[in-house]
Write a structure and sequence with these properties.
This protein is mostly helical and about 375 residues long. The chain has 17 helices and no strands. Helix 1 (about 10-35) runs parallel beside helix 5, helix 4 packs parallel to helix 7 (about 140-150) and helix 8 packs across helix 10. The termini are far apart.
């Protein structure tokens, strides 16, 4: 007689595989049948390697949204047709995702049960499925943020920070972190790689104008201004952050000052008040999530926060508040679609922003109080 033992561990393993296959498979189907964000990067990288200055305002293409380094990194992919290139990038995104899970499991000391729950909740979330379906690079940035923060080699940290910063809105606080904690060797490698990428770009295209080093920043500003001008079809699709809320209130002229104030507060807290390395990391992720403009796929940056919550649930006073905040951001679109709510996007965006802010500062001040 054969006894079949079915325990929670086996059920969870099977469930993890099935849910992953369903949601990843559906995202792959969407990738094949619809357009991809990666197409713009692919086209611009191909133009650069064919000898065109992609930051030339007269170029009849979309504004390049990323720094020079990104278009150098894409060289191995542009040699294949775009259809296959976007499939390659889809696979790379899965590698970045599962690589991030491995790093989180190791550094947050997650057991196999917690790791499987983290995978299930992540792959079923709107940020993850939306990202891999359209070929965005937020998982790319998250993966290198994790390497920068948790690995010890200064060269690896500098390399990872350079790659993470390709997506500015995902990683800018970590550049500040490296400076205030005097990681000078990391900063040196970071600067060296970025200077090299700019010099190579200039050399390859025979550019002599020094001021063109600012082209990526000017291009970003132009893109944002275009999105603001496009109204509801542009930047108002940004979610759960102060910028979007201020635009809604027509007070976005004050955004820079508010961003500066919160950035200075963040610097003070992580430098002088928060002693836990894990908590500093979570605080920075929440800060990025709420301070700058994001699309829904950018909120994969909350996956490490979810890992932190799962690990600390037994001695976590604000466990349910954190969990609700993450679930709200991860699943509000799926819930809204399923029940067909007629709720202004600005309203549920504001609700998400409030809960993210509340979660961050409550747990931060609790941590400060505990340390004192």
């Amino acid at each position: 007689m054969i006894k079949i033992l079915i325990n929670k561990k086996n059920i969870l393993s099977v469930l993890t595989i099935i849910i992953s296959l369903i949601f990843i498979g559906r995202a792959f189907q969407n990738l094949i049948n619809y357009g991809s964000d990666f197409e713009t990067s692919y086209i611009l990288a191909k133009l650069f390697w064919n000898g065109n200055d992609i930051f030339n305002p007269n170029l009849e293409e979309k504004n390049p949204f990323y720094p020079h380094l990104w278009y150098l990194v894409l060289y191995p992919i542009i040699s294949v047709e775009f259809f296959y290139a976007k499939i390659i990038f889809f696979i790379l995104n899965l590698i970045f995702f599962f690589g991030s899970i491995i790093i989180l499991k190791s550094n947050f000391n997650l057991n196999s049960h917690q790791t499987k729950i983290l995978i299930i909740l992540s792959v079923a979330s709107t940020p993850f499925t939306n990202l891999i379906a359209i070929g965005n690079l937020s998982l790319f940035s998250l993966f290198f943020i994790l390497i920068f923060y948790f690995y010890k080699s200064f060269f690896l940290k500098g390399l990872a920070l350079s790659l993470a910063l390709i997506k500015y809105n995902m990683s800018f606080l970590f550049v500040i972190y490296s400076i205030i904690f005097k990681q000078y060797k990391v900063a040196f490698v970071f600067l060296l790689l970025n200077i090299f990428s700019i010099l190579f770009y200039f050399y390859y295209l025979d550019i002599n104008d020094f001021f063109k080093i600012f082209d990526p920043f000017l291009s970003i500003l132009n893109t944002i201004n275009e999105q603001i001008d496009n109204g509801i079809n542009g930047i108002n699709y940004g979610l759960f952050n102060i910028h979007n809320f201020l635009i809604w209130l027509k007070l976005d002229d004050f955004y820079f000052y508010i961003l500066l104030i919160f950035t200075l507060i963040s610097i003070y807290l992580i430098k002088f008040s928060i002693n836990s390395k894990e908590q500093i990391f979570i605080f920075l992720l929440f800060g990025i999530a709420t301070l700058v403009y994001h699309m829904i796929y950018d909120y994969v940056l909350l996956i490490p926060v979810l890992a932190y919550v799962l690990k600390n649930k037994k001695n976590f006073k604000f466990f349910y508040l954190y969990l609700f905040s993450i679930f709200y951001v991860f699943y509000i679109f799926k819930i809204n679609t399923f029940f067909n709510f007629i709720i202004p996007k600005e309203i549920f965006s504001l609700i998400g922003m409030i809960f993210l802010f509340l979660s961050n500062y409550l747990i931060t001040f609790k941590e400060i109080k505990k340390n004192n």
